[in-house]
Specification:
Elements lengths: L1 E5 L8 H13 L10 E7 L6 H13 L8 E7 L8 H14 L7 E6 L6 E7 L16 H16 L11 H7 L20 H10 L4 H15 L3 H10 L2 E6 L2 E6 L2 E4 H4 L5 H8 L26 H45 L7 H36 L6 H8 L1 H4 L12 E3 L14 E6 L2 E6 L11 E3 L3 E4 L5 H15 L1 E5 L2 H14 L2 E2 L5 H15 L21
Parallel strand pairs: 14-15
Antiparallel strand pairs: 1-3, 2-4, 3-5, 4-5, 6-7, 7-8, 9-13, 9-14, 10-11, 11-12, 12-13
Amino acid sequence: MIGKKIKNPRKSASKAVRIGRLLDYVRNPETVNRSGKCIYSGARGFLTERPQSQKAEMLALSEEAVRSKDTINHYVLSWQEGEHPGPEHVEEAVSLFMKKLGLDGHQVVYALHADTGNIHLHLVINRVHPDSLKVIKPSRGFDIEAVHRAIAVIEYLQGWQREHNGRYDGEQVLAHKEVDKEVRPTCRPDRPRQPGQTKGDMERRTGEKSAERIAIEDGAPVIRSATSWQELHRRLAEIGMRYEMTGSGASLFVGDVQVKASSAHPGASLPRLQKRLGMYEPSSQSLRLAERAPEPIRNDIPGWETYITGRKAHHAAQETARVEQKSRQEAEYRRLAEDQRARREEVLTGNWRGRGTLRNTTQSILAAGQAAEKAALKERHKAEREQLRQQYRPYPDLEQWQQQHRPGDFAGQRWHQASEPPHIEGDGTEQPTPRDIRDYVWEVRDQQVHYTKIEKAGLGGRAAFVDRGRVIDIYDWCNRDSVLAALQLSRQKWGSFRVTGNDEYKAMCVRLAAEHGFRISNPELKERIQQERQRIQLQRAPAMKPEPLPQFEVDDGPGMG
């Protein structure tokens, strides 16, 4: 399960607009998105039961907080694909979520949507306390941490599959009950740094690396290894980046896109770099930045280059048309204003002595006519802007584009499910150590062991798989040899292990387990491995007696033998 806090897209909107639009969308998503579908909804903390009355109640209570411009928090909880929560799950999840955020008794409207591959729950919460009328900060301002803890508890109590990178363990959170300060994150300390939520969402929609990810993957290593400011500027320029002071901090620019320096790596912040390299020095020479083309999240996304080229062209044409339209409309408005000013001077200039009433009447009639002209021009301009918006509708997300252009090739595929590499997770805590694996060479980097195909070693390419201690991340997961080598390493380290990744990767692991006798502990793969083993036996069977395969067993865990 994944939890997100949705920012207010229009901070200038009034409370009435904010509450009205949000509740209308949550309860009736089809009014905004044709594919929207609300399959269950509910509300708590209200005196009335009718949706319109509840909307008025939430607005009335929100208006009591006169010093707060926005008292509404919007959260989304998303289940994994294939998980189907029912009404009883939703009601329990809402109770657990509100309690963990310290908002029990507050007004909340919630709705379960099924308009994407993952069923998700929207929660619209009024932070104004119904009794004290004070605006509450959920979990004393650390509401994202509270969201992670709530998700861990919901997953544990309701039996949902835990997210691979889940920050907390539900059993641990429950064991400490209210002493949450003693609960520590359980996610891997060596997990690679990831872009923020907004950038990650954009990557999943388009398949394109964000500037923040590029800064993390390419910029951070340069910054960490630089021994002087001039070396840092020169090496960054060679990969299309630059480091500059901005305000009291610093930013890393990927091309023209600005990224907060500390987002790339904690050691990239200005204070830490000045502590290591001395006072900040701008580049001593005019450096030419290398150009960077758009980069895909993964190299095996079908049709990505065609998609991203079309997307960039669409947005470029849209921006050109918008700028031209804005320039033309501003010129038309100026011409009208100048023409009206000239007519006023022509009509009203002169000697009106003794005819004050007539002048006032003439001025009023002229002003009314000119006001009508301005209103007509504004209306026409508004219609032109709407026509431009209709002409340049939002470009489809990558998955939508794939289904529209080549539906047969992408049926059932969700490319972004593998935004993180498939991996193998063992039961032990053994630190990564170099192991000799046939056809692969190893190299220790930052207390991790990187394994690369012999023929690709020394070419600067990405490792086929990386041993991080308890977890082995597989980057070359489409290559059968790489997966086989990683499984061999896993068997050598742990004996039995669990595999995590997309369906194609798991299918390959099933085949290799049947062929080589690997002990994979995933319960859902036990029957598939056994069936694959029987199929291979039938294929290899001679006329009289089948040739036995290497023995293997699937680890069912304690008490299930």
